[in-house]
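seq as requested:
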Amino acid sequence: MNFPFYIARRYLFSKKSTNVINVISGISVVGIVVATMALVVTLSVFNGFHDLVASFFTSFDPQLKVTPVKGKTAAADDPVLVKIRQLPQIDVATDCLEDQALAVYGTRQAMVTIKGVDDNFDRLTHINEILMGDGTFELHAADMHYGIPGVRLADQLGTGITYEYPMTIYAPQRQGQLNMADPTTGFKEDELYSPGVIFCVRQSKYDKNYIITSLQFARNLFQQEGRLTSLELRLKPGSNFDRVKSDIQKIAGDRFYVRDRFEQQDDTFKIMKIEKFIAYIFLTFILIVACFNIIGSLSMLIIDKKDDVVTLRNLGATDKQITRIFLFEGRLIAAIGAVVGILLGLLLCWLQQTFGLVKLGSTTGSFIVNAYPVSVHPEDIILVFLTVILVGWLAVWYPVRYFSRRLLT
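struct tokens:
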């Protein structure tokens, strides 16, 4: 057995001559346990919110979205897009055209995003899972075009789930000059009817701004015949997602972007990652402060064991071995605190996942979820353990060498 480690372990668990050293040693371990537990729980809560937001986006966003690099639109029959549609791994390909417009219903109006899609949009996404109402997903019937608004937009316009009369949509004319004597001539006007449903993604970006309608309606309204703003794709089950995405990007070259669901919402997830990183930094600083207790504990232990050091030297122990005894003492405190803190953190996460101990509000249904979401990622546990070990070991290195030199001289 390693001699310094054996002695350090005996010192850690044996009763000291001065009881206050036992107390400080216990406080050192508890401080690291609490800081470690806070790291595990906090990072897991951020993961929970990340996964929760991602689950909402996947009900509306496609697996892959191809958009032009230059300009807002591209030709639907572009050879590059045709080649992408023909890939054997593609299960559903939907042409989409979206742009800003003015929606008017009765005396209310709102700026909206009109998203025109193909009839297979319900096969492309999980739109049927987020519909509210007695109707079904329909985009048109003969020459009548339907519009499915988001839940918050429906509330803003006062349409309800099923609006009784048509919603009027206005979009600027793409050609000609605005006649100031009659400004209405500068806009193209069309009407949307209710299919008896609205959608609820539970994200303000969609629920407050979007209206889903047929692709032909959007092309007529925005005067973009044969054009699209994006080609949205769904892969066949069992396809290698990363490989297919790479193949599509090679075909697209530098003319089109190819984005997955997370890249489509890059701003949102980037902010969440920054918040998680800042929380990690702040909690690491708290861990560093907690490690000062180890320094105090080791300093008093070195003084308490002064006579033992003399005995060990007489028995043949070198100064290096004696220094390593106290280094191992500090490292054991850090390691025990890390392991116990991680286990307690995982226990708290399990309790929160199972019983929802910490609620988001006092009233059930006030929020999307009733309790704070938690998701434990193995890479975060490894990061926390390495952080605690590194901080703890660095914290004891200089004090131990400093006090050991003074004691051994």
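The first helix runs from residue 3 to 13.
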